[in-house]
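Continuing the batch. This is chain 6 of the set; chains 1 through 5 are on the previous pages. Same settings as before, nothing changed between runs. Recording input and output for traceability.
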Amino acid sequence: MIMTGIDYTFSYDVPQSPGEVYDAVTDVRGWWSQRITGDTDRLGEFVYEVPGIHRTHARVVELTPSRRVVWRVLENWFASSPDVDEWAGSQIAFDIEPVEGGTRLTFTHVGLTPELECFEGCSVGWSRHALQSLRMLITTGTGMPITPMDETALQSA
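Output for chain 6:
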């Protein structure tokens, strides 16, 4: 994993093809959360929500098969800072490029910077979801998305 720049970003290589990586990235229910409303594999809007904890309303604004996926965050809400929408207007990009022996995936949350109140917690979350779970989905076919059981544990914590 390589961490670079001001925006939260990392890259990793996998032995799968760019097409396989793209398919995994667009299967958001397979690596982020099973509680996604809307399509994540076509242009349009979707909502991720852990009731009472976190809600993100995003628009898929770019889908270039085997190359790139970009979401624009329209609204975001965290229970920990309910009056602040730090993610609004930010972009989440998945850049996919062939490398020797497989594919490099670069994840960047443009606008998620150390100056934001949520940076530490969001960094941990993206590391769990886009680094660990997505990587598992790509390499094994099974990710670790948030399940309704996980949500119950989060709500009682």
